[in-house]
Design goal:
heterodimer; A: 118 residues; mainly alpha; globular; B: 448 residues; alpha/beta; FAD/NAD(P)-binding domain; binds flavin-adenine dinucleotide; DUF5368 (chain A)
Chain lengths: 118, 448
């Protein structure tokens, strides 16, 4: 008799982020859109720039895990069972993907001329 | 917005989104499906019914929100004198030194749903025969349906020698007494964690809200002592009120093992009967007679009873285990009063086994309200409350066990096979810290 209601998830998320919720949604949409624009503009994924962003993305993953520990007053010693490792990996992956995406965008803005030379 | 900002915010969004998706099971994201179907806006029931909700805490506010969602034209009247709303599960984090008192305090007014009104007075009398409640100023408020959600009374007066104004001084702690008392308790516990000595933990012999809280605070104190390198200087003792450490046998056994692991000494069937705050001596009633125990720190948890207004009314149980403390005589699977069918009792005041947690409120309210609405439409309701109770049992700062159970002492994990209920996990702690309060607030607004 249980079901997981997406509407509940949505309102809980809204409650967690409070006033940040809509700016964050807008920010994420904007970043996604900008990424698409850059892809279309360059007509491909610039590989050396992407490699660089992936490296920066790794830092993003580490940052996400660090942030989770800081926000929850805990640390590595508190990792208990397998599900805790899964959560860590998910956090790392999310931080990594977000970081890579944002780094790619940033590099595209800072060094747009190098597009042809890749 | 600059890209750096986007980067930072985007990461936070991603991180918190993931956490909240996994989180919130402390208040269980799962909802009883029957009532949620009926809550479709298109299904709103037109009625002129006058519904009084006595008490605007967790259960009262959540009930008013659900009623406002489901009824069109009803008069919904909340009655509560206290202007501040307390998020009580936060008291434990305050008493752990992790949050300020303001973490648990907000304003009741901010949660009153559209279409409902609030009378800022206490209910002084309930007359279920005349279908009227009377406020302390003598104002009579008649009703067609009554939801009683007055929570419970902390009966500190029942412990000779106890004085709540002295919490935080001379080794006296009491996490339950309120947000400021919780902070004062941390101050006292923190001093104890430096000096060491005898730490005493206990629970009352009555029914109580969040029966895990006394255990949690024992674990937290143990952890703080260890972090400061002073565990060797302290002896911790937990005095259980009967022969168990928790009402659910499998959980009780797990806590026994954990206490053994942490070196917490346990006495069974020891109930606090008096306290000498000056000399720091607590007296316990035990099978062998009165036992005096000196302490350097104590976490006093008082007996709990139904509020006087309920105890004195015809709504209280007249016999059986819930009569002595005046809990409301409701059907355990519908929360409807057994003798007055227009009256419902939700939250801590309900005279049912288990169920005195905010997580239970989340399950009780949709069921009770579905039956109330069924009373208006004349259609039967199939919604049932199974006793769901949950309590993220903190076992140290950074880990908890997500313990969820029902009337029959079955474990009812929200994430079976994924989050083990009897395992000390970081993910369960993360839920308690990040997702529990937002889920609770969403519940007050009828959104969870
Ligand atoms: C230290 C602590 C830790 C806890 N930890 C957890 C946890 O981890 N998880 C969990 O799920 N739950 C936890 N709880 C339990 C949870 O807070 C309660 O079960 C929940 O608040 C019950 O809701 P309620 O509406 O019945 O009572 P309350 O929220 O207490 O509200 C009762 C309301 O009734 C009002 N009232 C009283 N008398 C009258 C009157 N005569 N007239 C009008 N109004 C009146 C009061 O002013 C109050 O606003 C904890 C509680 C404490 C104290």
């Amino acid at each position: 008799m249980k079901d997981l209601d997406p509407a509940i998830l949505f309102s809980v998320l809204q409650e967690i982020l409070g006033g940040l919720f809509w700016p964050l949604v807008a920010g994420a949409l904007l970043a996604g859109l900008a990424f698409l624009v850059v892809l279309v503009r360059d007509r491909r994924l610039v590989s050396d720039r992407f490699l660089m962003s992936e490296l920066i993305g790794l830092a993003g993953g580490v940052f996400a895990i660090w942030l989770a520990f800081v926000v929850t007053d805990s640390n590595f010693a508190d990792i208990g069972g397998p599900i805790d490792w899964v959560l860590l990996i998910v956090l790392f992956a999310l931080g990594g993907v977000g970081g890579t995406l944002c780094a790619y965008l940033l590099l595209a803005l800072v060094r747009p001329q190098r597009v042809g030379g890749a | 917005m600059t890209d750096t900002e986007t980067t930072r915010l985007d990461r936070r969004r991603v991180l918190l989104g993931g956490l909240s998706a996994l989180g919130a099971a402390g208040l269980s994201l799962a909802v009883p499906s029957a009532p949620s179907r009926a809550e479709d806006r298109s299904d709103r029931v037109a009625t002129k019914a006058r519904i009084v909700v006595a008490g605007a805490g967790a259960a009262g506010l959540a009930s008013a929100a659900r009623l406002a969602q489901r009824l069109d034209g009803a008069e919904i009247i909340l009655i509560d004198k206290r202007r501040a709303h307390y998020y009580q599960p936060g008291f434990t984090l305050i008493a752990a030194g992790l949050q300020p008192p303001s973490y648990a305090v907000s304003q009741t007014r901010d949660y009153i749903p559209g279409g409902a009104s609030l009378i800022e007075e206490a209910v002084a009398e309930i007359d279920p025969v005349g279908k009227t409640v009377v406020t302390e100023s003598g104002r009579a408020v008649p009703y067609d349906f009554l939801v009683v959600a007055t929570g419970l009374d902390l009966d500190y007066g029942a412990i000779p020698g106890m004085d709540v104004t002295r919490i935080g001084t001379n080794g006296l702690g009491s996490v339950y007494a309120g947000p400021d008392a919780a902070a004062a308790t941390y101050a006292a516990m923190s001093r104890f964690a430096e000096t060491g000595g005898a730490g005493l933990f206990l629970r009352p012999a009555t029914e109580m809200k969040c029966a895990g809280a006394p255990l949690k605070y024992t674990f937290i104190t143990d952890d703080v002592l260890r972090r400061r390198g002073n565990r060797g200087k302290a002896e911790l003792t937990y005095n259980a009120q009967n022969a168990t450490l928790f009402s659910v046998p499998i959980v009780s056994e797990k806590v026994r093992m954990l206490f053994q692991d942490r070196g917490v000494k346990v006495n069974y069937s020891h109930v606090l009967s008096a306290i000498d705050l000056q000399r720091r001596i607590a007296t316990f009633a035990s099978p062998g007679g009165q036992v005096q125990m000196p302490y350097d720190f104590i976490n006093v948890i008082p007996p709990m009873r139904a509020p006087a207004v309920v105890r004195a009314s015809a709504l209280a149980w007249q016999s059986g285990p819930f009569a002595a403390d005046g809990w409301m005589e409701v059907e355990r699977d519908t929360l409807r009063h057994r003798r007055f069918p227009d009256v419902f009792g939700v939250g801590d005041v309900a005279g049912v086994p288990k169920g005195k947690t905010a997580a239970s409120v989340k399950w009780q309210v949709p069921v009770a309200i579905d039956h109330l609405v069924a009373g208006i439409t004349g259609r039967p309701s199939a919604a049932r409350y199974n006793g769901y109770t949950s309590c993220p049992l903190i076992t140290r700062i950074g880990q908890a066990m997500l313990v969820e159970f029902d009337y029959d002492n079955n474990l009812t994990p929200s994430f079976p096979g994924i989050i083990a209920p009897l395992e000390e996990l970081w993910i369960s702690w993360v839920m308690k810290e990040i997702a529990l309060k937002p889920t609770y607030l969403a519940m007050l607004r009828g959104k969870a």
